[in-house]
Amino acid sequence: MISIPMTGPVVAPPRHRFLRVRYQLLGGLLFAVGLPVLLRSLDGTWVLAAETTQNTVLAAVCAHVLGFLAFRRLGSFPGVAAAGFILPTFALTYGFIFAVIFFFRIDYSRFQAGGSFILSTLWYFGWSIAARRVVRHRLAIVPGGSVAGIERIQNVAWHYLSSPDQALPGINGIVADLRADLSEEWERYIADAALAGIRVYHVKQVTESLTGRTEIEHLSENTLGSLNPDQFYLSFKELADRLAAVAVLALLAPLFAAIALAIRLDTPGPVLFRQKRMGYRGKVFTVYKFRSMRVGPAGEGGREHAMTRPGDGRITRVGRFLRHSRLDELPQALNIIRGEMSWIGPRPEALSLSNWYEGELPFYRYRHIVRPGITGWAQVNQGHVTEVDDVLEKLHYDFYYIKNFSPWLDLVIFLRTIRVMVSGHGAV
């Protein structure tokens, strides 16, 4: 926590011109789309006269703008505005646009398309590095209400205000508990800050956006003002999930057979592991996974046996690889086809664990308002947990996902899941 005693009026932070949206986008288009055209015209040939180049330039502009908008939208989620997400974001948008072109057999220039994609990623890599050096978030805290402890959140320069006469030039925003009974002096200070162009944030809004967790001291509505997630996206996602699950089962059938053979050769027992779990809207269903543990004695089904501890001796050699790579989760495509699960959502818990958590944690059942997923926001941030205190933090992540339920957040989780699969983070 940093305290800088200063007096005077509230001063708005200086704006860096190159960080403005129009400079980022226009500069990116000129660099990524214009530069390849210029390089191809160095021999005196005006390549823009060719229909092939015109098609490619138009497609590259669309892909670049979509990538820019997607990256800006994804950057609103905690821990995402990192250079590591630029490449996959633009790979998706360029891949989609040029897949459409290829499907309709439209002529295009491979040099122009490839060069535009590479230069787009380089432009935003460079811009991200420059932005991190120029801009550092500086937030001032108005005392009163539930602001205690917020300064423990890292990667922000916090400035605790001691009086309404204090001014902090160069701050990016002011954090206050807007639901607290603040004095008239502090309310005037906040109003003056807003009039000066400084953003004023509610403390809960800032905490959620910086940590990716939603506190659950009481049920909280989502961004649409309702306890229920977006029903249109819920229905659309179910259809897309099922189509993707059918494709996965068809395309990865040889891999499924190889994994099944490896499991049978490693240890005796069934290939698939079946377990009752709590699912969508509190309905019990049977989840399917590739078996990664030795088969235990009959009657082992209590809470302790449902937990997988770090270094668990029941995990087989093949099972350890399957867990590390998350390949053991693939048979849950069957659950997705049956409408019991989604690719992305809160992880379903074993029935014994779910009943225990419901008795220990308030509002635990609210996480069942969306379909459970193979991967989720808690998994890519926290990994595997079993203790009640850790489960409470996991529930904070699940509530954040439900409150911000959207295709953008699902895309973030998808991209981070790929990184988790490669690194093995959170595996047991």
Short structural description:
The protein has 428 residues and is an alpha/beta fold. It has helices spanning 21-40, 51-74, 86-103, 110-134, 184-195, 203-211, 231-251, 253-266, 303-306, 317-325, 333-337, 351-360, 377-381, 388-403, 407-423; strands at 138-141, 157-160, 173-176, 199-202, 272-278, 284-290, 342-344, 373-375.
Describe the structure in your own words.
- The chain is of the alpha/beta class and 428 residues long.
- The chain has 3 domains: 17-134, no CATH class; 138-207, Rossmann fold (3-Layer(aba) Sandwich), CATH 3.40.50; 231-423, no CATH class.
- The protein is 49% helix and 8% strand.
- The chain has helices spanning 21-40, 51-74, 86-103, 110-134, 184-195, 203-211, 231-251, 253-266, 303-306, 317-325, 333-337, 351-360, 377-381, 388-403, 407-423; strands at 138-141, 157-160, 173-176, 199-202, 272-278, 284-290, 342-344, 373-375.
- The strands form 3 sheets. Strands 2-1-3-4 form a 4-stranded parallel β-sheet. It has a two-stranded antiparallel ribbon with strand order 5-6. Strands 7-8 form a two-stranded parallel ribbon.
- The protein is flat and about 70 Å long.
- 30% of the residues are buried.
- The model is unreliable at 1-14 (pLDDT under 50).
Any chance you could write out the topology, listing elements then pairs?
Elements: H1 21-40, H2 51-74, H3 86-103, H4 110-134, E1 138-141, E2 157-160, E3 173-176, H5 184-195, E4 199-202, H6 203-211, H7 231-251, H8 253-266, E5 272-278, E6 284-290, H9 303-306, H10 317-325, H11 333-337, E7 342-344, H12 351-360, E8 373-375, H13 377-381, H14 388-403, H15 407-423
Parallel strand pairs: 1-2, 1-3, 3-4, 7-8
Antiparallel strand pairs: 5-6
Helix pairs in contact: 1-2, 1-4, 2-3, 2-4, 3-4
